[in-house]
Amino acid sequence: MGFEVSVSEEVNTERVRELKEFDDTKAGVKGLVDQGITKIPRLFHHPPDEHVKVSTSGGKADNIPVIDLAEVDKDPSLRQGVIDRIREASEKWGFFQVVNHGIPVTVLEDLKDGVCRFYEQDTEVKKDLYTRDHKKPFLYNSNFDIYSSPALNWRDTFMCYLAPNPPKPQDLPAVCRDILLEYGTCVMKLGIALLELLSESLGLHPNHLKDMDCAKGLISLCHYYPACPEPELTLGTTKHSDNCFLTVLLQDHIGGLQVLYQNTWIDIAPEPGALVVNIGDFLQLITNDKFKSVEHRVVANVTGPRISVACFFSEGLKSSGKLYGPIKELLSEDNPPKYREIAVEEYARYYVEKGLDGTSALDHFRI
Fold first, then answer.
1. Could you tell me which InterPro entries the record lists for this protein (predicted)?
2. End-to-end CA separation in angstroms for the chain
């Protein structure tokens, strides 16, 4: 027994040393690719998920609705049709895509270009910004859960809070500063419109979710997934659900995002000009499980880099301390509350500490 423990401790010590070595380069996964590696380090090896199938049918992806928002504010009958589709998608898939959402395609393209420009700067320039200090207005690193997750993900990320207090322009890198702030304004407007439609799909007043401060905070995560020489051994992002109210995701043309539906991974194929919208854990909590925060992942690709920008409607670790529980109007004798009331910050802290280990953080807060 003593021998087993010492071997285990030795392996763990070696792993921590390798993690620190990788982290200390401050060059992220892109730094590994720039070195021309052909074998990925074992830190990135994910065990195969034997219990989940991968869909081989491209047709199934069509079931994730693409919803047209073009006339939603002009035609009441069209609006009702959109509300019905959003309700169905939120209950069944937890995901849908939106087109004609009001954000110009030029803004989407400029944002992808700006994110790419940041990552493709000289490593020495980026090193100064590499940090794990959540108090910084701009947080750039590789794998936020580097010391808690079972295996690392093949991606680098930068994060900033875009609302309620947007960063000062000088706190953002010059190569993507203007477009990030412009996109933040655009996506906030879209998020409020989506929360109105989601409120109505719950049978509530259009402003209900907004008045609960579901759109008060906005966090932007800009991901860079370099081409991977051994994509079958790792993942771009481990299976997880999002710790927010709502996520609006811009993905490029490469693809790799998959949603877990009936124990099968379904591709969410990139749709030109579309944004992917998904229900977050907090929306599942306050709707008392009516809307589903569904697990999803990103596979590693042999082609790259893949760029994606996820905007989370949440105050995250900067929460006001306000408590959230299941919405009273949705509860009844037959539908009692399934969760205790919690603050966003408490949830976000637990989520970060737990890391992306493939389990839902929601279960921890069930009654």
1. DIOX_N (IPR026992), IPNS-like_FE2OG_OXY (IPR044861), IPNS-like_sf (IPR027443), Oxoglu/Fe-dep_dioxygenase_dom (IPR005123)
2. 38
- What does the CA dihedral 326, 244, 161, 273 come to, rounded to 10 degrees? -130
Q: What angle do CA 52, 361, 217 make, to 5 degrees?
A: 120
CA distance 39 to 84: 48
Q: Which domains does the chain have, with CATH numbers?
A: 2-365 (2.60.120.330)
Side-chain-side CA neighbours of 181 within 13 Å: the count stands at 13
Tens digits of residue pLDDT in 126-166: 999 999 998 899 999 999 999 988 999 999 999 999 999 88
**275, 107 in Cβ contact below 8 A?**
no
Q: How confident is the model at residue 3 (pLDDT cuts 50, 70, 90)?
A: very low
Question: Quick one: which of 224, 196, 233, 179 has its CA closest to 313?
Answer: 196
CA distances in angstroms from 47 to 146, 150, 152, 259, 309, listed in the order given: 17, 9, 11, 19, 27
Residue ranges of alpha helices (H) inside the chain are 2-25, 28-34, 76-92, 105-119, 123-127, 177-201, 208-211, 281-286, 344-354
Report the b/e string of 83-114 with b at 16+ CB within 10 A. Answer: bebbbebbebbbbbbbeebebeeebbebbbeb
Strand partners, 310: 221, 249
Average pLDDT over residues 335-362: 88
Sign of the CA dihedral with 348 first, then 315, 249, and 215 last: positive
User: What tokens were used for 227?
Assistant: 């081409």
Name, in order, each residue with C-beta under 8 angstroms of 161's C-beta and a sequence gap of 6 or more. 137, 167, 217, 218, 219, 220, 316, 318
Nearest to 224 by CA among 147, 113, 320: 113
> What is the arrangement of strands in the sheet containing 246-251, beginning at the earlier edge strand?
66-68, 95-99, 275-279, 246-251, 306-313, 218-225, 156-163, 139-141
pLDDT in tens, 291-337: 999 999 999 999 999 999 999 999 877 777 889 999 999 999 999 99
pLDDT digits (tens, 9 = 90+) for 267-298: 999 999 999 999 999 999 999 999 999 999 99
Rounded CA-CA distance 155/301 in Å is: 11
Task: Assess contact for 236 and 265: CB atoms under 8 A.
Answer: no
